[in-house]
């Protein structure tokens, strides 16, 4: 039976939490708070006017792009800031000023972390042993796992996680975040490998997962030079991910950002990959909302999510 496709899009909005807030936006930029630091980053779709230009001028760090591929340089008001700790619920992680305008995590993904946390906790509570035994932990695969915040959110909720990323440096950062979170004893496997190769090998082995997270970049390279192109490579990888779902799997979550993509297009791709699994497919956009009662929201990425 094919899944039911939700006829209407959903906007998953991330709002301020203790260590992060979108403070203001406009003029092609956004002003954010990361822990104790205020940061200005480019955001071309913010066509409107900022509310407080003085706050932008007083920011601790400003990213100056050098090209259209999100690379550039950070400019600091005082001494350069390298790294500093942040937290989301039980997950602790290190924020870093990378040369790609982000700070080693994507705050809009907190809406997905919240959904994953709730989904896994419900799976644990409905397990035959009441979620008390390690062998009852839902098995989650996180492809393109980057610095591991989603993996650690799943582990904190009680999942057994396989974290895969092609970057040795990113996986090392993820392991550091696990140590910072006090989760080195949790059942997490850290794997440096090309996502397509890993998924294809798991299919051949007959391995199954209860949930899969797929958050691919628009373009990337594997550890031995493999080239990833979103539009060319995503359909095959998504089909392999669907094949890796157990008979009673809970979810397959796909998140992507590209100028020529939409939540609706991702939903049809998801429907094709899960055509015989029943369930429902939700789709839409991830957004960040300014802190405050009348805060404007910025759409930043698109998602499609199959769930049983």
Structure summarized in a few sentences:
This protein has 308 residues and is α/β, with parallel strands linked by helices. It is built from 7 helices and 18 strands.
Write structural notes for this entry.
With 308 residues, the protein is α/β, with parallel strands linked by helices. Helix content is 25%, strand content 33%. The chain has seven helices and 18 strands. It has helices spanning 53-57, 110-125, 149-156, 168-180, 195-205, 230-243, 263-273, and strands spanning 4-5, 10-14, 20-26, 29-34, 37-42, 61-65, 72-76, 83-88, 91-96, 139-143, 160-165, 188-192, 211-214, 219-221, 227-229, 251-256, 280-289, 297-307. Strands 1, 2, 10, 11, 12, 13, 16, 17 and 18 form a nine-stranded mixed sheet that branches. The protein has a five-stranded mixed sheet with strand order 3-4-5-6-7, with no helix packed on it. Helix 2 (110-125) runs parallel beside helix 3 (149-156) and helix 6 crosses helix 7 (263-273). The longest helix is centred in the middle third of the chain and has 16 residues, at 110-125. The protein starts with a strand and ends with a strand. The mean pLDDT is 95.
């Amino acid at each position: 039976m094919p899944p039911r496709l939700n006829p209407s899009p959903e906007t998953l909005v991330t709002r301020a939490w203790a260590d992060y807030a979108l403070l203001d936006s406009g003029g092609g930029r956004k002003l954010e708070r990361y822990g104790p630091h205020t940061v200005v980053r480019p955001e071309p779709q913010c066509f409107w006017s900022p509310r407080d230009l003085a706050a932008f001028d007083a920011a601790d760090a400003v990213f100056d792009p050098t090209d259209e591929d999100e690379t550039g340089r950070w400019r600091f008001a005082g001494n350069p800031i390298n790294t500093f700790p942040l937290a989301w619920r039980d997950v602790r992680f290190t924020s870093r000023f990378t040369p790609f305008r982000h700070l080693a995590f994507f705050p809009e993904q907190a809406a997905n972390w919240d959904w994953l946390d709730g989904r896994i906790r419900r799976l644990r509570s409905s397990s035959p042993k009441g979620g008390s035994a390690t062998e009852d932990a839902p098995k989650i695969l996180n492809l393109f796992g980057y610095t591991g915040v989603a993996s650690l959110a799943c582990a904190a909720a009680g999942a057994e996680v396989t974290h895969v990323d092609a970057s040795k440096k990113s996986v090392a950062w993820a392991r550091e975040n696990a140590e910072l979170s006090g989760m080195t004893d949790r059942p997490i496997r850290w794997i440096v490998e090309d996502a397509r190769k890993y998924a294809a090998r798991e299919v051949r082995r007959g391995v199954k997962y209860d949930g899969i997270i797929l958050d691919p970049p628009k373009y990337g390279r594997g550890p031995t030079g493999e080239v990833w192109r979103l539009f060319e490579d995503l359909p095959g990888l998504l089909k392999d991910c669907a094949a890796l779902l157990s008979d009673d799997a809970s979810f397959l979550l796909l998140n992507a950002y590209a100028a020529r993509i939409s939540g609706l297009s991702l939903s049809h791709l998801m429907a094709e990959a899960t055509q015989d699994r029943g369930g429902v497919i939700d789709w839409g956009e991830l957004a960040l909302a300014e802190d405050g009662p009348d805060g404007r929201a910025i759409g930043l990425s698109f998602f499609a999510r199959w769930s049983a």
